[in-house]
Amino acid sequence: MRLTTFTDYGLRTLMRLAGEPERLFTSDEIAQAFGISRHHLSKIISTLAEAGIVATRRGSGGGFHLARPAESISVGEVARLLEGRQALVECFEPGGGACTLMPGCRLKGRLAAAQEAFFRELDGTTLAECAYPPLPAPAP
Length: 140
Description:
This protein is mostly helical. Helix content is 44%, strand content 6%. It has a two-stranded antiparallel ribbon with strand order 1-2. Keywords: DNA-binding. One of its GO terms (cellular component) is cytosol. One of its GO terms (molecular function) is DNA binding. Pfam families: Rrf2.
């Protein structure tokens, strides 16, 4: 399975935010750091804010940061959110797309199970584990 660029950029952004959870970041700063379009990044931030993963502040001194602790945000949650619009194969699209094998296809169920296993695997990893730069280890 291949993640979309939208998801890739979203995960990179969240990893950076998790690296300095108390800091407010700007779109320009993140876009320059990762070499991505500021316009594209704005769409990603908007999606993450609507889902309650990122909090935004407008105006002078504004920016965005994680809305929840990085330990409580799984990579799977984010991937599901950002990949949600993307069908793995055409028959996963609403109405089944243009699949000529429907309704007798026996592959669709297995593809759906594989996709869910992929997301379940990502559910076991939090943003805190992927923070960039890495968060300091907790004191013993």
